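USER:
Working in pairs, take the chain set out below, taking as long as you need, and write a paragraph about the fold.
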Amino acid sequence: MHKTIGILGGMSPESTVAYYEYITRTYTERFGDYAYPEVLIYSVSFQPYVDWPKDDRWDLVAEGLGQAARALEAAGADFILIATNTMHIVFDEVKDSVNVPMLSLLDAVGRVIEHRTMDTVGLLGTAFTMEKTFYHDALAERGIKVLVPGPEDRERVNHVIYDELVAGEIRDDSREAFARIIHKLSERGAQGVILGCTEIPLLVSEEAVGLPLFDTTTIHAEAALRYAVEG
């Protein structure tokens, strides 16, 4: 029997769907049947998780996600993943609130970059993801330096994520802006770029920007599938 996957989602719906589709469809493509792992999804109401960080109430974020994680555990999840980058700021607090394992997106991404033998990468994500140090700290333990865009570009990236991508809106001008920002990171020495928000892959591709991109949604979902099937 495969392990039951608990997805802590809703931040946003697009990313949660991407996780679910990757796990189920990739399993069938890989193994040729439909015996993919059972998946439990707790989709939170997103608005508090937009408001609380703005007020720097990460204690409320941790408390809310901890309650959701415990609900997944009670429902039968054998392990849990948070289907978003930014909320990994409180990963340790949420992990401590449950008795089942939690699969860290940062660990999964770090292993992939390490395997590619890169020592400098760019990071795109919400303002919190780019400006807080949780990504920098996690990857520094693997000897990987993280570069982020300048202030104006960070503001543009954050705007596109919250006001467009989260709502399912894909704009050509935003696609071009992201390509320019990625090019600037490359000029500063980035050997690849982490798409540190689970919606960004909807907007950019390696073929379009000519630089390795680390799709954190795919990387994290793949780690969850492997853990569920292989242990």
Summary: The chain is about 55% helix and 15% strand. Residues 84 and 198 are 6 Å apart (CA to CA). Residues 13-31 form the longest helix (19 residues). The beta strands are 5-9, 39-43, 79-82, 120-124, 145-147, 192-195, 213-215.
